Structure prediction request, 416 residues.
Amino acid sequence: MRVERNDSDARSDESLLAAMAAGDEQAGVAFVRRYQRRVFGLARGLLGDVTLAEDVAQEALLRVWRHAPVFDARRGSVTTWVLTITRNLAVDQLRMRRSVPADPEDLAALGLVAEAADPADLAAGRGDLRNVAHVLRALPATQRRALLLSAYYGLSASEVAAREEIPLGTAKTRIRASMQKVRAALVPAPGPVFGEGGERV
Amino acid sequence: MSDCDEARELLPELVLGVLGGDERAAVLAHVETCRSCQGESEALVTAAGALLELVPAADPPPGFESRLLARRRRRAGGMTPGRRLRVRLAAVAAGVVLLGAGIGIGAVAAGGGHPAEAAVSVPLVSPAGHVGEVIAAAGRKGFLAMSVDLDGRSGWVRCVAVERGGRHVALGSFLLSNGYGSWSSPLRAAATVTKAELLAPSGRILATATFTTAV
Prediction:
């Protein structure tokens, strides 16, 4: 699990959230400092506009702060939770402005540059992110577009279908297939289970 | 949806928060009782999170932190501990599970509460930007709670829920003080609610909250 140590607070993300839930303002400040670059980076990558990105980033961090008591570690990592809130707020803004994303084919628009993952990530040994970047690059363009449209821009399968001028079933298949490839690169599916008699359970 | 294969096909869309209506309800109902699909959901949540982490971090503009803290202080001024507690109590009384970030990645409840009764939390937005938050849940004990920070505007405002099909359900009139106000009211809607609106006495729409998942 990545821990960004730009801040001087040594507590884990979960500890900070627990402290924030208990009303510890300083824990909240430490959390903001720890996450602001990632949250703002995602907001800016999705929205393009710095002012709007700042608004969304602040709202996302305030929402995390407010909902700190609700965070359930069973549902996923703190990072995923924080970035999901950010992405959802950004998508709300895009929908309100009826902004179609520029060209989702262009990974550079999202800053998903091929070779250079964030050096800090590489230094922290984030092989998982390198694997995901590789999967993205290796996807057929049609699947990559469907994945970007749904995973980053929150388009439903029917919206992807309308935009790509493909049947709904095809859109669903592309989203599913690309997500399964990303998932496989991170969390290999469990192998078959064999019973005592050698039969497959 | 009792068939795992059927549910599995839709898990990626569910986890990405782009599955709507009946499909979403059916898949959630299945996942609630299926350990195998829960495991697969968790793996997909990890995948979705990794995709978001790929977008590079960036330095926010100078003063970001102090502006954020100022925003928080302003909100805290309006949403007193008493009001906040009443909103939470309303949610508990309605027997709902607050899913936090509304809908989307990670929203698959790990065995807590029937999905149909889950509350959603969405931003309240005006042309000027975020001005508050709305929490709502449908059902027998449906309710809608709203907290508002409308930058100095005081006086009466009206709150309505808008059903798909356009029918307006009046939720009441409320008083803003220094731009702040928060309230909750029962929500009796005949059809799916798609948004909530905050109106000036003249009927002008001040802010809107859109439910990206049906309430």
In short: Confidence is low (pLDDT under 50) at residues 1-5, 193-201 of chain A. Chain A touches chain B through 77 residues (CB under 8 Å). The first helix of chain A runs from residue 13 to 21.
